[in-house]
Design the sequence.
């Protein structure tokens, strides 16, 4: 069932990532940098979900931040107001997001590509208004505070290195799930829908079914990212989950490389660390994201990871060809 | 009390609960009138979306920013450089069209891009326009002077009508009429319609698709600038003032049937009226949500829109 041979290099990459993030807290104990990497991990989880929907299935969700917001609010409200455990909060967020995704995905995914973009955009704005105006539930503009730390078997995740480990364990889990979905029947169906929807339908694949599946899974990934965000920041407010965050996530995906699963890891790491080094351009950050988006799409459509893959392939071709020539020379002699 | 937007808010907050129905019956004409004023602006936005959707087969998320750009340039020319209102507005419309065409020449024309990427590029353009406007004019809102006679109000059927609203409806009507005439009778308009009906055949007879996309965008820039200038006297305009109105224009386009110009206009007017009624009768807190709730409901009920276009898939 699982194609270990084909996916081998992904596993090697994942092990490398785990080793890398396992050693970082041993090297630097600075809560600031560890917090940045935690944020990068949270963004990577949402980006992995978007990768399945967008990079594999070719469907456009322009408001992932709204789904992150729903996940974050569900967990925050349940744990801080009603005293449920964080696990219940996470499950409630996932359930809520699934219902919402089914509700808005079911009609719009039967129609053509642009309708999902329009509907998710509208959903993003509605959610923003609900977060702001349902004061009795969401706390209005002042948001939800005093969100408790995550506590697993008496271990409280309240220090930066521990939370970093927790978030990146989630990244690894989601990565494996998405990787296997991508390389299963569902993933192949989604790729064929991406390439040509009518042809896929002729082959006996139901486009709306698989698209809805991908949409719900990506929504669940976003809600997990929201849950991790809420318990990391311990305070959430409506404006965090606005259009700017959605654009940031999409730019991450594009810069990392749309269509490559590693792009959804590389992009968030680059774009979470980069703005901190460009601190003097603080007012320009949205402007810079817009420029990165346009320049990436027009001139580097395969992104950073795509460029890396091309480089590796060229190098490999160069070395393989050299070997082949030597053998050929040997044979002819 | 001469701003349509201000009226509905104040009247709602004053209404005591027991007098609600009596009070509201008298206010319904007022809601209808202000709905039509705002609806004309949505209709112009929806027309821009429809045009891009038909010619380039994708969405343009920057329509609201074109609106903001036109309004801000006009405000700058009139308030800072003290030009006469008419000249300032004219220059603002031309400058907006030039900026939009230049941006499209830089961002969309260089490479052949897919439909999804087209949408993202226009979104990137929207962010860049918005943020550049913030850098140039700052974050505080500005206001354009009323048009000639726009400050006066007339009472009709118990509704107070600001004459600026009459300006909005009148100019929108003229613009829509001109738009249809251009599309019907000029060579550019015919070429655009050819692009819409059959892209391959259009390219075979020598119509340059990319040039057509650029021309379409410049028309959208003009439409956006006009609507921005029209609405700037009654609502304050800031660097992010255009995006929500623009997105409601998109809702209106879907409401009327995306890809149908007549549907866009009807959808815009209906959306404006429904929004005004919803804000007045239900809750003004959720005023901005109504358009998008209607949008999601229309997906279930009538994805082809109320006018009904044929949603065909290109194979």
Sequence:
């Amino acid at each position: 069932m699982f194609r270990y041979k084909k996916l081998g290099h992904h596993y090697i990459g994942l092990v490398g990532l785990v080793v890398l993030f396992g050693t970082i807290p041993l090297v630097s104990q600075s809560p600031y940098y560890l917090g940045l990497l935690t944020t990068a991990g949270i963004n990577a989880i949402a980006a992995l979900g978007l990768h399945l929907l967008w990079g594999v299935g070719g469907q456009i969700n322009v408001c992932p931040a709204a789904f992150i917001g729903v996940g974050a609010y569900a967990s925050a409200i349940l744990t801080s107001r009603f005293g449920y455990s964080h696990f219940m909060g996470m499950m409630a967020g996932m359930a809520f997001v699934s219902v919402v995704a089914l509700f808005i995905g079911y009609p719009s995914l039967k129609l053509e590509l642009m309708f999902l973009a329009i509907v998710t955009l509208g959903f993003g704005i509605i959610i923003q208004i609900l977060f702001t105006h349902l004061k009795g539930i969401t706390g209005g503009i002042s948001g939800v505070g005093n969100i408790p730390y995550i506590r697993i078997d008496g271990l409280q995740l309240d220090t930066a290195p521990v939370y970093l480990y927790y978030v990146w364990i989630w990244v690894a889990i989601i990565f494996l799930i998405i990787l296997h979905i991508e390389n299963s029947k569902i993933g192949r169906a989604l790729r064929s829908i991406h390439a040509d929807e009518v042809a896929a339908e002729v082959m006996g694949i139901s486009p709306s079914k698989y698209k809805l599946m991908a949409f719900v899974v990506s929504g669940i990934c976003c809600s997990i990212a929201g849950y991790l965000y809420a318990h990391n920041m311990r305070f959430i407010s409506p404006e965090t989950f606005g259009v700017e965050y959605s654009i940031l996530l999409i730019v991450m995906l594009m810069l990392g490389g749309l269509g490559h699963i590693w792009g959804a890891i590389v992009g968030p790491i680059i774009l979470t660390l980069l703005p901190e080094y460009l601190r003097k351009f603080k007012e320009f950050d949205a402007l810079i994201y817009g420029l990165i988006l346009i320049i990436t799409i027009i001139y580097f459509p395969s992104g950073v990871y795509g460029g890396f893959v091309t480089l590796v392939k060229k190098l490999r071709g160069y070395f393989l060809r050299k070997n082949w020539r030597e053998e050929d020379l040997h044979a002819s002699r | 009390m001469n701003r349509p937007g201000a009226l509905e808010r104040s009247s709602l907050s004053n209404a005591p609960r027991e007098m609600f129905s009596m009070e509201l019956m008298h206010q319904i004409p007022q809601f209808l009138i202000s709905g039509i004023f705002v609806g004309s602006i949505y209709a112009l936005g929806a027309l821009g979306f429809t045009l891009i959707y038909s010619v380039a087969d994708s969405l343009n998320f920057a329509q609201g920013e074109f609106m903001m750009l036109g309004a801000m340039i006009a405000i700058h020319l009139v308030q800072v450089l003290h030009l006469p209102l008419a000249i300032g507005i004219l220059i603002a419309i031309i400058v907006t069209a030039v900026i939009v065409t230049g941006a499209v020449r830089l961002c969309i024309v260089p490479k052949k891009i897919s439909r999804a990427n087209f949408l993202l590029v226009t979104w990137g353009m929207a962010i860049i326009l918005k943020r550049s406007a913030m850098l140039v004019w700052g974050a505080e809102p500005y206001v354009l002077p009323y048009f000639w006679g726009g400050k006066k109000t007339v009472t009709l059927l118990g509704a107070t009508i600001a004459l600026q609203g009459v300006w909005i409806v009148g100019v929108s009507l003229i613009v829509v009429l001109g738009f249809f005439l251009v599309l019907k009778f000029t060579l550019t308009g015919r070429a655009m319609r050819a692009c819409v009906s059959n892209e391959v055949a259009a390219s075979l007879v020598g119509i340059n698709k990319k040039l057509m996309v650029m021309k379409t965008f410049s028309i959208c820039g003009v439409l956006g600038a006009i609507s921005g200038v029209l609405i700037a006297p009654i609502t304050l305009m800031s660097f992010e003032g255009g995006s929500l109105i623009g997105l409601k224009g998109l809702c209106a386009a879907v409401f009327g049937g995306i890809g149908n110009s007549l549907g866009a206009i009807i959808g815009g007017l209906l959306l404006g009226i429904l929004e005004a009624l919803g804000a007045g009768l239900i809750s003004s807190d959720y005023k901005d949500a109504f358009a998008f709730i209607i949008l999601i409901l229309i997906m279930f009920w009538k994805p082809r829109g109320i006018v009904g276009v044929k949603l065909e898939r290109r194979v």
User: Anything to note?
Assistant: Confidence is low (pLDDT under 50) at residues 1-19 of chain B.
